[in-house]
Design goal:
Helices cover 39% and strands 15% of the residues. The protein has 217 residues and is of the alpha/beta class. Strands 1, 2, 3, 4, 5 and 6 form a 6-stranded parallel beta sheet that branches. The protein starts with a helix and ends in a 5-residue tail after the last helix.
Amino acid sequence: MTKEKFRALERNAARCAACIALAAALALPMLPRTEAAASPSGDGVLVAYFSLSGSVPEGADAVTHATPSIGSTEAAAREIAARTGGTLFAIRTERAYPERHDECSEIAEQEMRDDARPALASHVEGMENYGTVFVGYPIWWYAEPMAVRTFLEEYDFSGKTVVPFCTSLGAGVGRSVENIRELCPDSTVLRGVTLRTGSADFREPVEEWLKEIGIIQ
């Protein structure tokens, strides 16, 4: 075989190998680069709550103080976070509320009459990382405290699932849920739950409620 024929065979073999490689590449499924590179976001769970339990003396009861040391909204929030793996967040106001029930009640009533929005001292970092947001509070004057409205108006809840829960000695969560739906019109607001203020253990009612609304199995 001449040198020229040998070189021609080498060139043909190289062309065939390139054709085989191209055919194999075209046969592979094409994945969009943006989808392949995307990472999960916005699927976290936040358990936000407004509670005065941090300023109430140990052993206080619901008659002499605004929030008892047990069975508080904070205690309910901790139970929900434990069940869902959520991140706890305390909604705190710049202005401290009085410990005594009658004094706190007067301020709460005035804030509601004024449709006030108390300034908050705490703020959520990375709200976009949470797709489900639990919002907890004690019932003040048959509804949610005005600080909760400040919280709900501070962030964009569009497309998120909002889950209300409250602690109360009487009035239920119903009116506050309707208020939250008005404040978060582009969110899915699930059925809320009313937990009795002062209860020693929230585990059973919280678990039952979370199963009913499809948050846990």
